[in-house]
Amino acid sequence: MQLPNESIFASEVSHLQTTLLRNLQALRKEKSRDAARSRRGKENFEFYELAKLLPLPAAITSQLDKASIIRLTISYLKMRDFANQGDPPWNLRMEGPPPNTSVKGSLSVQKPVTINGELRQRFLEFGMPFFMVFYGVAHALKASPKYQQRVLD
């Protein structure tokens, strides 16, 4: 036979256990959110450090999202590899500091990399894309036969 106090005590214990379990779950959720926030912060830091290494002005790299940073980095690496395979290899090293660094009182002028006539002719003959550079970002343009004829004439 149960005494009335025992049933009240059992219900209070059950209520305390439920409350404790809810508090523990809330604590775990908060800890998980904090860990995810920390991971995202570290990830964002690495992305923006990578963006600083791109050959673009800081005004542009500071506005890029993660996907753009990855896309531009891959394009830059492919262009660098492509330039090294040229005959003769293109010298992509520019004079002066990288674009994202500023040196007080100095202006650095980067010399454009040009394609000589023979190399341009080879690109046209084999239907290779032209690479145009705007603000340090390379864009590949596939030359159509109609365009090739105009350039060759």
Automatic annotation (TrEMBL):
Keyword Lyase: no
Region forming the signal peptide: none
Domain of life: Eukaryota
UniProt key word Ribonucleoprotein: no
GO cellular component terms listed in the entry, alphabetical order: nucleus
UniProt keywords, alphabetically: DNA-binding, Nucleus, Repeat, Transcription, Transcription regulation
Pfam families listed in its UniProt record: bHLH_HIF1A
Subcellular location per the Swiss-Prot or TrEMBL entry: Nucleus
Protein name: BHLH domain-containing protein
Lineage: Eukaryota, Metazoa, Chordata, Craniata, Vertebrata
